[in-house]
Design a protein that fits this description.
2 domains, six-stranded antiparallel sheet, two-stranded antiparallel sheet, 18 helices
């Protein structure tokens, strides 16, 4: 007699539900976000009070400096002492600690962690189109969307003050950040997931929302960016020596060194670095990268907050000397948000940066990769292209009247990043249509701008008391 076929075990119902259970509708998610106002009213976001046990900002900076190249720490301090705006750009750790105690809704996104108005600009997409967006991701980590928005609004006030703007212009810039964020988040909430994922802030769409004066400024930025491809950068960053391209030195900011801090030959270290980096690239990029050969490498001081971390510029060439590829190696430490965000730890902090950038930037660099150095003291790193059609606004007095327009773009770019990585419908439901959140965050922005000035004064006093080393001519 024929035996009946054995009954196959059914699939795990929990696993099946993971892919088949209905998702809450946009309307339901917006309603849930709106309901959060009962627990965290918009007005609560206006409040900033320094905690009684607030950490000394100078002490925080000195702690950060312990893991950095000690000969570069005086340059970092000098750059932060240039202005309260420069100080804000370099003190993400201090503000992260302050933001951690402010009210949040519990809605999370892939937070940037170092959001300020100088952290935006133009760059080239893989299709070689110019887009506008966030351009630095060293501190990215899953966290509260409010932290990014509050830091960005506060930076608008700090920047406008630095540029000589009055209180009205400061408030207009801060409100423009939040108003634009709200408006764009409501738009993204109604879009399909793929439509949001493929969204870009391209040149044409950007120019349509600007005033005539701001449009002219943006067109100039785009024009300059087009002249910053690898071939053009070659003529500015390298020179022909003995029939070979060499990176131009500009000590102490760009220096060619023969050995690492622990005495290993630089070229040997770079070879190991590139080998680990290549393993992180997708197979198609590995094929492309294999067509290039390393020509020269130099240490480069970059930015404000990053000064003192291990950063290198690598020049590679392809078919000929005028087929260059500039790569930037950057050390990656733990995010400033790590002590306050409920996020998993990464085995490689460079991978954390790359994954975060790929998630929220929209048009990430095709050569983004990471690795862990076996011998170098700065073991975690990531690599990206250097100055590939990048451009940004100049924060000088002649541009101050265009700051509300510019801040509108920053709010838009931040909303897009958060919509890609979080729940735009829930956030849209919470931020709402009224100007209540704009008003609250503008008040917060002024309060924190005042705190930033007090911290800047504290750093100046520390410099005068020789608690911190300061380099001369660190620009």
């Amino acid at each position: 007699m024929k035996q009946p076929a054995p009954v196959k075990k059914s699939a795990d119902p929990k696993l099946l539900a993971r892919y088949t259970a209905p998702m809450p509708s946009v309307g339901e998610r917006k309603a849930a976000g709106k309901a959060l106002r009962d627990h965290v009213p918009h007005a609560q976001h206006a409040i900033y009070q320094a905690a009684p046990n607030r950490a000394d900002p100078v002490t925080l900076l000195r702690e950060q400096s312990k893991t950095r190249l000690q000969n570069l720490v005086p340059i970092r301090n000098a750059r932060m002492l240039a202005s309260p705006f420069a100080f804000l750009r370099g003190s993400a750790a201090a503000m992260a600690a302050d933001l951690a105690s402010t009210p949040v809704t519990g809605l999370t996104v892939q937070a940037n962690g170092d959001m300020h108005v100088a952290n935006f600009g133009t760059f080239a997409s893989a299709e070689r189109n110019l887009v506008f967006g966030i351009n630095d991701f060293d501190e990215t980590l899953p966290g509260a969307w409010e932290w990014d928005l509050k830091r960005l609004a506060a930076s608008a006030v700090v920047a406008v003050r630095f540029m000589g703007g009055d209180k009205v212009l400061c408030e207009g810039a801060a409100r423009a950040v939040v108003r634009s964020y709200r408006k764009r988040m409501r738009e993204y909430a109604e879009m399909g997931n793929l439509e949001v994922w493929y969204s870009r802030i391209d040149e044409a769409s950007l120019l349509t929302v600007l005033s005539p004066d701001a449009r002219k400024l943006a067109e100039n930025i785009f024009d300059k960016a087009r002249g910053r491809g690898h071939t053009q950068v070659l003529g500015k960053m390298a020179e022909l020596v003995d029939n070979r391209q060499r990176i131009i030195e500009a000590a102490p900011l760009i220096v060619r060194e023969t050995h690492t801090q622990d005495g290993r030959p630089i070229r040997e270290e770079i070879a190991l670095t590139l080998n680990r980096y290549v393993n992180s690239l997708p197979d198609d990029r590995k094929t492309l990268f294999a067509r290039y050969r390393l020509v020269d490498v130099a240490r480069k001081v970059v930015g404000v907050g990053s000064v003192g971390t291990r950063c290198w510029v690598m020049l590679l060439t392809g078919n000929s000397g005028d087929d260059p590829l500039f790569l930037q190696y950057k050390e990656a430490g733990a995010s400033v948000l790590a002590p306050y965000a409920k996020a998993p730890k990464w085995a490689c902090e460079g991978q954390r940066v790359v994954v975060g950038q790929r998630l929220i930037q929209g048009a990430p660099d095709i050569f983004l990769g990471w690795g862990i150095q076996k011998y170098s003291a700065g073991s975690h790193f990531y690599i990206r292209q250097l100055r590939d059609m990048k451009g940004g606004v100049e924060f000088d007095p002649e541009n101050v009247k265009s700051m509300p327009d510019y801040c509108k773009l920053c709010g838009w770019a931040l909303a897009l990043a958060h919509a890609k990585s979080g729940d735009p419908a829930a956030i849209a439901g919470y931020v709402g249509k009224s100007e209540a959140l704009d008003e609250a965050l503008a008040r917060f922005a002024f309060a924190y701008a005042d705190q930033n000035e007090r911290d800047f004064d504290a750093l100046n006093k520390a410099a005068k008391a020789k608690r911190i080393p300061v380099a001369q001519g660190a620009d």
